[in-house]
Design brief:
Shape: elongated
Family: Belongs to the MoaC family.
CATH class: Alpha Beta
Helix content: 25-40%
Subunit structure: Homohexamer; trimer of dimers.
Largest sheet: 4 strands, antiparallel
CATH topology: Alpha-Beta Plaits
Number of domains: 1
Protein name: Probable cyclic pyranopterin monophosphate synthase
Keywords: Lyase, Molybdenum cofactor biosynthesis
CATH architecture: 2-Layer Sandwich
Number of strands: 4
Structural class: alpha+beta
Strand order of the largest sheet: 2-3-1-4
Enzyme class: lyase
Length: about 180
């Protein structure tokens, strides 16, 4: 028997019965609203997200050798990921602005892809999984931007390039 690939680490194993009842960003009339977290206690929170960008093997070698004309791909992507984490509340309409206490980024280079893992920590009233996801997607977009000149084919397309498997691996909360 195989494990459900859609089940993320730390996810709720119980099946949802009526997801519409659990929607917190809409009123009973269906209007969009920001969730009121004012009465919630502060908690230490952590979320980890991951994703990957598929690239040509020659592009991976150029990144490893710091031979990309635009500069250090991974250092630039790390900065982009951290900046995205810090500005998530400005790009996701119903996200609260939260105090980010730590961001860790880790890149893993394979023969034809780079995996980016972003861990975000905060102490507050709401989680930080959206921040971790924004860090991953922006960091991977920065990689794409840095290497797009060598990833294009003769007609200017990207047939081998793709951002894939973006997901939340972990979400944790500990009362303070």
């Amino acid at each position: 028997m195989s494990e459900d690939p859609s089940a993320a680490e730390g996810s709720n194993p119980e099946p949802r019965t009526d997801a519409a009842e659990d929607l917190t960003h809409t009123t009973e009339d269906g209007d969009v609203q920001m969730v009121d977290v004012g009465d919630k206690p502060d908690s230490e929170r952590r979320a980890v997200a991951v994703g990957e960008i598929r690239l040509q093997p020659g592009t991976i070698e150029a990144i490893r050798g710091d031979e990309v004309g635009k500069g250090d791909v991974l250092a630039t992507a790390r900065i982009g990921a951290i900046q995205a984490v810090k500005h998530t509340w400005e790009t996701i309409p119903m996200c609260h602005q939260i105090p980010i206490t730590n961001v860790d980024t880790a890149f893993d280079l394979d023969d034809d892809r780079i995996e980016l893992r972003v861990a975000v920590e905060t102490t507050g009233k709401t989680g930080c999984e959206m921040e971790a996801l924004e860090g991953v997607t922006t960091g991977l977009n920065v990689v794409w931007d840095m290497v797009k000149a060598v990833e294009k084919n003769e007609s200017g397309q990207y047939p081998e390039t793709g951002i894939e498997n973006v997901r939340v691996l972990e979400k944790a909360k500990h009362e303070t």
